[in-house]
Amino acid sequence: RAFKTLIAAEYAGVDVAVAEYDAAKIQAASPTGKAPILEVSSTTSDGTTTTTLFGSNAIARHVSRLRRDAGLMGGSLEQMAEVDAWLEFCDHEIELPATVWVYPVCGYMPFHDAAYAKAKKDLGAALAVLEKHLADGNKKCLVGKQMTLADISIASALVYPFKLVCDPKYLKQYGNVVRWFTDCVGQEEFKAVIGDVVMCKKEIAAKR
After folding, report:
1. Which tens digit of pLDDT belongs to each residue from 95-140?
2. pTM for the full predicted model
3. Is the Cα torsion angle 76, 141, 154, 114 positive or negative in sign?
4. For residues 201 and 166, is the Cβ–Cβ distance under 8 A?
5. For the chain, which terminal residue's Cβ has fewer other Cβ atoms within 10 angstroms, N or C?
6. What are phi and psi of 43, to 5 degrees?
C-alpha cells in the first residue's frame, strides 16, 4: 500500500525517506496502530512540529498535493472529485478481491475455495468497469489527459495480481486495461519504485 505514495513522490519530485519497519513505533504513532505512516515536519516561528499522517490514501493525497503543478490530483475541482472517486473504487472494488486472491499465494492468509472463486469474480467485475472506461483507444489515463493519483493507485494495486495470478486467459477480455497498465508500469517513475513488472504467464496456485 506504500507503492502509490512512493510513485506519486517520484512524479512530484518529492523526497520521501523510507525507514525500516518498526512495529512498536507504528503502533505508538498511528491511531490505528497500522502501517503505513508518514511523519511530516514543519517549521514556524514557534519551532518545529512533527505530524504523523496515517492511512495510505491520506498519505498519498498529501504527497500528491505538495506539488500542485504536477497535476496528480487533477486540474480542476471536477477532476479532483474524479480522482477521489477512483481511489474509493480502488479501495473497495480492487484491493479487497486482489488481497483475498493473492495473499494465500504469498502465504499471508489461508486458502478457501469459496473466497478464491468470489475474489476472481469480483476482481473481474472491477476490471470490466476499467475496461469500459478505457474503451476509447486514445484514452491513456483514467482522469483527464495526464497521469494522476487515480492511475497510480489502481495500477499499484494491480501489480501483484498481474504478476502472480492473472494469467493471459483471465485477462483476455480486458485488453484496454492491460494496455493502460503496461503503459503505467513502463514509466520511469513506476520503475524507480517497483522495478520491471513481468506479467503472469500461468496462475500461481495457493497451497490448499
Report:
1. 999 999 999 999 999 999 999 999 999 999 999 999 999 998 778 9
2. 0.91
3. positive
4. no
5. C
6. -120, 130
